[in-house]
Amino acid sequence: MLSNTEENYLKGLFHLTGEDPAKPEAGTNELATHLNVKPATVNDMLKKLKQKKLIRYEKYGKISLSPEGRQRAIEVLRKHRLWETFLYQKLDFTWDEVHEVAEQLEHIQSKKLIEKLDQFLGHPEVDPHGEAIPAANGELKTQPRKTLAEISIGKTCKMMSVKDNTASFLQYVVKVGLGISSNIKVIDRQEYDAMLAIEVDGKVSNVSQKFAENIFVA
Amino acid sequence: MLSNTEENYLKGLFHLTGEDPAKPEAGTNELATHLNVKPATVNDMLKKLKQKKLIRYEKYGKISLSPEGRQRAIEVLRKHRLWETFLYQKLDFTWDEVHEVAEQLEHIQSKKLIEKLDQFLGHPEVDPHGEAIPAANGELKTQPRKTLAEISIGKTCKMMSVKDNTASFLQYVVKVGLGISSNIKVIDRQEYDAMLAIEVDGKVSNVSQKFAENIFVA
DNA sequence: ATATAAAGTTAGACTTACCTAACAATTTTA
DNA sequence: TAAAATTGTTAGGTAAGTCTAACTTTATAT
Q: How close, in Å, is residue A113 to chain B by CA atoms?
């Protein structure tokens, strides 16, 4: 049985390394920043997780999840995304409210609960942010994804999901008129600061590079 | 903000003292037994809870909840019973499975979540064990209750709720053919060991005094 | 009414998860 | 390639919540 904290470290590592095969390793500082703790704290936990065979790690080396650790991380992710879907679909939470509560709910320990919840929700494939929900067996559909920042001028794309789940970002997304499945046309990109002019439902907005990098499109 | 542990101590105290005005105080050992920790551990926590003004307590004296502490305990109870109802009604958990998972869910911190859940469930008044669910404002209907052990021979009564929520007891209750709203006729009571002969739906069973004391009837 | 039993308290220790401060290794860059 | 910057590690400390062992107070029973 893993503690909530251990689960959060595995989830953090998965977020930093597991989703993109191009960057399969993370560093101590990087993980510390992501989890809002100090590097020394991460270092302690790395020893513990290594000893439990959940990560691969050597002193001064990079960190990666073991198959077992990855599996555990995906289980937590499954729970997180199912709970988000529940809050959004059944309890009328908004897009930007679900993440925080799901951060708590994802640690509830009950195999039966999560399978019944999945069934109750009709086996959803994506969460309210458009992210794929891992299957009960741990399979996770992971298509290569492009961000809005990579789309060339004049092209139109469809918003699939968001990378950042913070309330402030999501509220901003709504303000710009965007949502899952929105069609976005890239009108212009400033040479100077990579600001993007985009058109959504006939409305033109200017968004930053940082913003564009957090919108996944197809 | 209270920790899960602090919430559990308040809940424990409420269980031992708050439900029945006849016994408004508890002791250290009693609480320790109820929470499955050692008296020394309880003693430490009592100091903390007193300092937070959640309990009344003097060295070597009895323990009781302050109005604030009682309020907090009832909030946890409300969450516990709403989650039990959710698991039972929406996720097809059985009677004896809901308690354990609700012990975890009751600590999720989100005012909005619990009010939305209450709404989603149609503002239920009792949980799957027949216990009253406290209202959002903290009001708790508390009728004087009788147990099956107090019913005289020949009388018929109706099962309202159970006192013990453990899986083993609840499974036993089902085995005897009992459930919320069952009509129970008391056929006989042994002088020797207070064993009770009861009739439910035409079926006669013999149950112990201990069993009968955990069935609330009207 | 006093001895024994029961209940309650204190002191000291352990684990988890965190911190700061000092130091070591590695990477970057001038 | 050596100095500077970054990254990672170690040592020692704290708070929460638990324990055991020894002790004190209160309650019970003859």
A: 8
